[in-house]
Amino acid sequence: xxxxxxxxxxxxxxxxxxxxxxxxxxxxxxxxxxxxxxxxxxxxxxxxxxxxxxxxxxxxxxxxxxxxxxxxxxxxxxxxxxxxxxxxxxxxxxxxxxxxxxxxxxxxxxxxxxxxxxxxxxxxxxxxxxxxxxxxxxxxxxxxxxxxxxxxxxxxxxxxxxxxxxxxxxxxxxxxxxxxxxxxxxxxxxxxxxxxxxxxxxxxxxxxxxxxxxxxxxxxxxxxxxxxxxxxxxxxxxxxxxxxxxxxxxxxxxxxxxxxxxxxxxxxxxxxxxxxxxxxxxxxxxxxxxxxxxxxxxxxxxxxxxxxxxxxxxxxxxxxxxxxxxxxxxxxxxxxxxxxxxxxxxxxxxxxxxxxxxxxxxxxxxxxxxxxxxxxxxxxxxxxxxxxxxxxxxxxxxxxxx
Length: 402
Prior knowledge:
It contains 14 helices and twelve strands. The chain is an alpha/beta fold and 402 residues long. It is globular and about 60 Å long.
């Protein structure tokens, strides 16, 4: 008799690449009556929140906060730096670079997309060729996705900064760290990033609804050169508010701020270097299991080279429709939810059912990862999908050596 998942049968595990698992402490912090938005603790907590957000981003520069998701942060970053008719260079390694380019198109900004496919990182020589050809510096920004959540490719942002510097190209370097911040190592100032966007629902461990745009003086100068910026998207009053409401261009996301305060306390207590190390260790355990499963049958990781794999998300494939069958089986029978293969094939294409993803970002530890891997092993066995043996032992060995 098969076991059917029910709310009384234990806590379900959302192992998707965002929204990530929200810590109980964060949820408890948010579970309160609405506070006073004119004076008191909500207003008083903002300087500390801003300081700790900059700590996670590794920057001494500015941050603007928006009530919205990562797409809102995309639009805010563009609205403050680029005018209709401007040109952006977009090196693409998955769906989300194309999404950012499409957001730019909605603002009248032209994008030149360099598509590197769905399994390879940026080719720096191809990017260099595009920048060298731009002799009149029409390219005002490079829209760089650090980790593409669909493909799980980790791109080399410092190398891109070095390329821009070596060529003397003045384009802004804008990084999408929605999947990576607080998971994969990222150093905004040390890496020379001018604008960085992220959201609260992945490495920051807060339910979706708040996003962030970090920007330096060079980006601020680009903002000052624009003829206008819409009142809502303008980052200037949000980063330098004279009154509390200006952080938000209106009412604050009250409960989210309490959750964010608690999440940032947790991040501070662990330390960002330790958080990066934890994500690296857990990711290597995931990879060890996946490499073992791949020794027999159709199981495969999307990114072959570990140097180009994110520590936050792993994109995977089986033979269609096995990925969908596996996801449905483990969710129904084990209470384990895996990520869909977003952006790897169109939803109407039968191939769509051959892709899936693991999220291992934010509030995760060793026993959670071993539970994820054990659930997948169980599903592979239940469905009769051929796979290599010894995956759990391989993952356990990684964690035992840590």
